[in-house]
Amino acid sequence: MKSQRKALKKQLDNEMIHITFSKQKEVMGRLHPVSFKQKAQLIWNKEIELPLLPLTAICMLICLSLGVKYINNYDSIPDSTEKKAGELIKIEDYVYWKKDLEKTVMRYED
């Protein structure tokens, strides 16, 4: 068994004698970073796997919660503007602000 291994090893070495590994220092430098730049490159080279279903569910929950908050805020805005601007008057099928209607009527009466 050992002689067979040695024979295979010798044959492999003979076949690969013309192949040389020229960037050994570069590879070793990447494996054992020394400088801050090398360490940063090692960190940025990581692959991140994000599961699609939970990520989509979280994004949907955030969008829905913002939408509900926006709708609730939007519904409360007309109440505050009505109090500031005055009351609404309906003439036939049209709705006017009382202050605007009074200004228009006063302009045409004079």
From TrEMBL:
Species in which this protein is naturally found: Siminovitchia fordii
Name of this protein: Uncharacterized protein
Superkingdom of origin organism: Bacteria
